[in-house]
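Q: What structure does this chain adopt?
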Amino acid sequence: EVQLVEAGGGKVQPGGSLRLSCAASGFAFGLYDMLWVRQAPGKGLEWVSQISNFGDSPTYADPVKGRFTISRDNAKNTLYLQMDSLKPEDTAVYYCAKSGGWYIPDYWGQGTQVAVSS
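A:
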């Protein structure tokens, strides 16, 4: 059974940092591309970032480019999202997702809440 478990969310002041993690199990993690997707209150899903199975070719949505860094540790079956210079508009539930091909998610975690406010 595929499981994705996010952790690391919380409340932080503007300009602060958080590091999200996503522990994967039930599939060959190192063979699949992975994504981070978020959903702000009252809004739809927004793609944030993606990374290839080898850990190269990271790409980012324009609103987070230069502030967020996606990475993975295939030995630990874990995906990360380092979020720096956080802004109130980054407030959302953050989900990690496994790609089923072409970076289209086929499995999702339960999400972790990030709240950025003073």
